[in-house]
Structures are given as structure tokens and as C-alpha cells.
Amino acid sequence: MARTKEFDPEAALQSALELFWQRGYEATSMADLVDYLGIGRASIYATFGSKHELYLKAMDRYAEMRDPSLLTELSQPGPALPAVRAVVRRFAEEAASPEKRLAGCLVTNTAAELAPHDPAAARRVELSWDHVETPLCSALIRAQAQGELSEDRDPRALARMLFVLMQGLRVVGKASDDPARVRDAAEQALTLLD
User: According to the lineage, what is the superkingdom (predicted)?
Assistant: First the structure.
């Protein structure tokens, strides 16, 4: 007869996500996971598989938690450029925020740590990045159609530039004590929309 789990797998996955987010993949050992989750190694393996499988499940959970307001902000009726500017500024503020900056973004952290040599992690990173870049591009296309953005501008290229900037803000914000560094960079990039 199969035993009933003595822990909540959803709560354990959330805890694993938090630990991986704080420390990264390589710096988190199975012993760390056992201690942090408060469950045995065998239970972790039986429920989630290997440490790598648990990490990928944590990334999937992170993707489920992603900011739903991004699409809402960028798809509101009316002028599109104010929404694009607001999103970029929000990323800059989060990157400069003492409460949020040290954790950074799990996807950005994974891109730097695992994506170059881990195809499964790289796929999740790309999917997450598409979730940001695609609504940015759609908003810029709409801005151009509404006459807010010059016809000679390439909305796709601008969206990619803003997206790369936003990811860079997260990296620099995580390592820098100077909030003006990320705020100034964001404001300069936004002048390209004028």
C-alpha cells in the first residue's frame, strides 16, 4: 500500500523556488534543499526527481507566477507609449529597490548561470523572454499605427532593445548599490521612443 505524503508538494516546490532564487542552481546542494524544505532526500527524489528536475519545476512555477500586469499594462486601449515607458521604469525601479534587487530575476539568473550549457533551462529562459518581448513589440506596433511612434522606427528592433535593457537593468541592479545607474540607463533608452 502506498504511503501518503507527509508534506505538501506545492509548498515544497515553492520553498525550493525560493532557495534556488536566493542561491542559484550550483550553489544549492541537495543537503541545502533537505534542510530548507524540511523533507528527506528520498522524498524529494520521489516527488520531484533529481535536483535538476526540481530546478526546472521551480522555473515553471516562477513562470506561472510571472507578472500578469505586464500584458494588461501594454494592451490597454489608448496611447501605447506611456504604457511602454511605465513598464521600463517599473523594471528600473524594481532593479534599484533594496527589497527586490538582491534576488534579481530567476530567469535572468538562470540565463547567466545555466542557459549556455543546459538546453532545458535555456528553453525556459527563451519562453519567459518571449513573454516580455512580444507584448512590448505589440505595444510599439500599436503606437506606430496610432502615430505615436515614427514610421521610420522598427517596432521589433525597439522592443528587443528595450527588452535587453530591462534584463541588463536586473543584472546591474543586483550588483550595484547605485540606484541612479539603472534609472539613468532606463531614461536614456526611453528617449529613443521620442
Answer: Bacteria
CB count within 10 Å of CB 163 equals 19
Distances (CA, A) of 20 to 5, 67, 79, 104, 119: 23, 19, 39, 12, 18
Looking at residue 7, what DSSP letter applies? Answer: S
- In angstroms, the CA 169 to CA 171 distance is 6
pLDDT > 70 in the chain, percent: 96
* Residue 183 · residue 92 · CB < 8 Å: yes
**pLDDT single digits (tens) 88-140:** 999 999 999 887 777 788 999 999 999 999 999 999 999 999 999 999 999 99
